[in-house]
Automatic annotation (TrEMBL):
GO molecular function: ATP binding; ATP hydrolysis activity
Protein name per its UniProtKB record: Amino acid/amide ABC transporter ATP-binding protein 1 (HAAT family)
Listed Gene3D superfamilies: P-loop containing nucleotide triphosphate hydrolases (3.40.50.300)
Keyword line: ATP-binding, Cell membrane, Membrane, Nucleotide-binding, Transport
Residue span(s) of domain ABC transporter: 5-246
InterPro entries, alphabetized: AAA+_ATPase (IPR003593), ABC_AA/LPS_Transport (IPR051120), ABC_transporter-like_ATP-bd (IPR003439), ABC_transporter-like_CS (IPR017871), P-loop_NTPase (IPR027417)
Annotated Gene Ontology cellular component terms: plasma membrane
Length: 249
């Protein structure tokens, strides 16, 4: 079985500070895997290493058996790796459908010629509508991003990530800053994501984590403290003290 994503001894140093400490990690096919840890644990740094935003100091990143350690971010997207960010980066004056359509044209290489054929526009519209319909957010298609609630914008970000047809999806705190009354919709959207996509979720909302994930990795000070299923993570005294307990809420 080829592992979609694997890191071996992945390390990132900034001078004398080690923020990612020899992390060995595997994301299995179709995984629903969560990465948790207190603030400053190195979770986002780990995702930035995987996506090529920053280079590692040492170690290796492999995807489907291929070494991608030195691959550029754009190449990693074409290799099947997509992500969302803690802070959304949508085009606020465009509609939901237009934002998603732009991502599709970037994937297909049609951005420079998307207006050259009526048929191409029809194909683009069909794919956009199908994606929004599959995620049950088609009612937002013609609404401008600027007019959407924050939780709805996070859902559009996920739709855009799916528009590039990834095999691996990294979700960096999709519920961050989302009011409680909107987070339920995000959880339900996550549960509708295609089962063939391997997903790594970075999240502080433990209700979301325990509902979504079938495997959890706990990161503390850049190294892996523990990895296991939800029951193992819930019952571990170290996790309760470091992350789930009073010290980190």
């Amino acid at each position: 079985m080829t592992i979609p994503l694997q890191t071996v001894g992945l390390t990132k140093n900034y001078g004398g500070l080690c923020v990612t400490d020899a992390v060995d990690f595997s994301l299995e096919p179709g995984a629903r895997h969560a990465l948790i840890g207190p603030n400053g644990a190195g979770k986002t740094t780990f995702v930035n290493l995987i996506t090529g935003v920053i280079p590692p100091t040492s170690g290796e990143i492999r995807s489907f058996g291929r070494d991608i350690t030195n691959m550029a971010p754009r190449q990693r997207v074409k290799h099947g790796i997509a992500r969302t960010f803690q802070i959304n980066s949508l085009f606020p004056q465009l509609t939901t459908a237009e934002n998603v359509a732009l991502a599709i044209t970037e994937r297909t290489g049609a951005a420079s010629r998307m207006f050259s054929r009526v048929e191409r526009d029809a194909e683009l519209e069909r794919e956009t509508v199908t994606l929004l319909e599959d995620l049950s957010i088609l009612d937002m298609a013609n609404k401008r991003i600027a007019g959407l609630a924050y939780g709805q914008r996070r859902m559009v970000e996920i739709a855009i990530a799916l528009a590039v047809k990834p095999q691996i999806l990294l979700l960096d705190e999709p519920a961050a800053g989302v009011p409680t009354n909107e987070s339920r919709a995000i959880i339900e959207l996550l549960e509708r994501l295609p089962s063939h996509i391997s997903i790594l979720l970075i999240e502080h909302d433990m209700d979301l984590v325990f509902r979504f994930a079938n495997k959890i990795t706990v990161l503390v000070e850049g190294h892996v403290l523990l990895e296991g299923d939800c029951a193992q993570i819930r019952s571990d005294a170290r996790v309760k003290e470091i992350y789930l307990g009073r010290r980190h809420g």
